[in-house]
Amino acid sequence: MKIRRPKLKADNSLFHEILRDVCLTTRVIESGQFIQHGNTSVLEHSILVAYVSYRVALKLKLPVKHRELIRGALLHDYFLYDWHEKDKNHRLHGFYHPFTALRNAERDVKLTAIERDIIKKHMFPLTLIPPRHMESLLVCLVDKFCATCETLYITSRDDKFWLKKAVVYSRARNRVT
Predict the structure, then answer these.
(1) Fewest CB atoms less than 10 Å from the CB: which of 24, 33, 37, 75?
(2) Which residues contact 3 (CB under 8 A, 6 or more apart)?
């Protein structure tokens, strides 16, 4: 069974704009070198969580701030290390990586309260404190759905559109800096 990604539509321009901005202003592209679940990189996972969260919000007409939803979801796993390596600092990764991701994101960009909440609470119930905003709850649920699909290898591996875009944006950033 394969999960099909939604077909590209004109209303993806906001997603495209925010993905570009995040790639240009952070080191998120570096997360492409680390595996998250199954054979999915952290970057692929983050893009998928952001895109599915955005599309669900649109489809269900949820009263959310789309820009903050997408940015928070793109940065929710911005921890920048391989958590599979045997290292005492990686023990209990599930409990602590939201705080590392938040610290990294705050170092690189200015975050809103909603974006901070998304990053910090996406691992609820492991992190104990529940999400405070609709955007945070949505990313929390979509993150678990995507992680399950990736772990069971039921995500589509042939659609790399957004990942390719992220690489292009990253190269543009490297030319600017």
Answers:
(1) 33
(2) 149, 154, 155, 156
Q: Model-level pTM?
A: 0.83
CB 67 within 8 A of CB 114: no
Q: Which two tokens stand for residue 174?
A: 């490297």
Give the E-state strand segments of 10-166 in sequence order: 35-37, 40-41
By three-state DSSP, how is residue 35 classified?
strand
pLDDT tens-digit series, residues 47-106: 999 999 999 999 999 999 999 999 999 999 999 887 656 766 656 665 678 999 999 999
CA distance 30 to 50: 17
Which residue type occupies 110?
K
Structure tokens at 27: 């080191």
